[in-house]
């Protein structure tokens, strides 16, 4: 089976998109000083750190950045042997009465975000939860949407969106792979 690759975003486009997303997050946050960004492992974590820096560049303080692994909360994956039902949290502050922004690279069916919301529920009672996704490829199975979207694209089932980031992949690029 062969595939063709189409580049959707390059490094400069990605930087511009993240700057716009940082502005949107600040607009939607009722109090920027009570903001917490939580990246969904793995690329969501890199994006959360970049967004935190962009927010600081806008002139606000750097919001705390947390990390969450939602694997144990997924309802569509078999639980791995010995995996904790509570998942891995690395949150530097309490989420109580804060605006929590869950950040992922691609929002697709909605299951990862649902799992992340369940995990945040176990951490405390945020005032508000927002969802930010670099790419929204549509085709939801659950009634979940992103509040802040970097780019909307229409993707067929035979296509795959690949987000490549410097921190993990050595390059900043978003591609669409066409399988045929």
Describe the overall structure.
It is a single chain. This protein has 180 residues and is an alpha/beta fold. It contains 4 helices and 9 strands. Strands 4-3-2-5-6-7 form a 6-stranded mixed β-sheet, sandwiched between helices. It has a 3-stranded antiparallel β-sheet with strand order 1-9-8. Helix 1 crosses helix 2. The termini are close together. About 4% of the residues have low confidence.
Q: Can you count the helices?
A: 4
Oligomer description? single chain
Q: State the secondary-structure class.
A: alpha/beta
Spatial order of the strands forming the largest sheet: 4-3-2-5-6-7
| Overall helicity | 25-40%
Describe the largest sheet.
6 strands, mixed
β content, as a range? 25-35%
Extract low-pLDDT stretches.
79-86
Task: Count every beta strand, where a strand is a DSSP E run of 2 or more residues.
Answer: 9
Rg, nearest Å: 16 Å
Overall residue-averaged pLDDT value: 89
Tell me, briefly, the overall form. Answer: globular
In whole angstroms, the N-to-C terminal distance is: 6 Å
Q: Please trace the helix and strand order, writing H or E for each element.
A: EHEHEEEHEEEHE
Keywords:
alpha/beta; 6-stranded mixed β-sheet; 3-stranded antiparallel β-sheet
Chain-wise SSE layout:
Layout: E1 3-9, H1 11-28, E2 35-40, H2 43-57, E3 65-69, E4 88-90, E5 99-107, H3 111-123, E6 128-136, E7 148-152, E8 159-164, H4 166-169, E9 173-179
Parallel strand pairs: 2-3, 2-5, 5-6, 6-7
Antiparallel strand pairs: 1-9, 3-4, 8-9
Helix pairs in contact: 1-2
């Amino acid at each position: 089976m062969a595939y063709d690759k189409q580049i959707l975003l390059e490094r400069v486009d990605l930087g511009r998109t993240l700057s716009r997303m940082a502005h949107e997050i600040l607009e939607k946050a009722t109090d920027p000083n009570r903001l917490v960004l939580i990246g969904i492992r793995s690329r969501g974590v890199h994006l959360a750190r970049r967004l935190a820096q962009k927010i600081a560049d806008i002139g606000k303080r750097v919001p705390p950045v947390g990390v969450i692994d939602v694997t144990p909360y997924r309802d569509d994956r078999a639980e791995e042997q010995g995996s904790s039902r509570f998942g891995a949290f690395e949150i530097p502050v309490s989420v109580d009465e804060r605006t929590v922004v869950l950040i992922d690279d691609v929002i697709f069916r909605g299951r990862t975000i649902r799992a992340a919301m369940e995990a945040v529920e176990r951490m405390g009672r945020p005032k508000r939860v927002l969802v930010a996704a670099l790419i929204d490829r549509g085709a939801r199975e659950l009634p979940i949407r992103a509040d802040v979207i970097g780019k909307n694209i229409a993707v067929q089932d035979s296509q795959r969106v690949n987000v490549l980031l410097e921190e993990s992949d050595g390059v900043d690029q978003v591609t669409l792979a066409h399988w045929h």
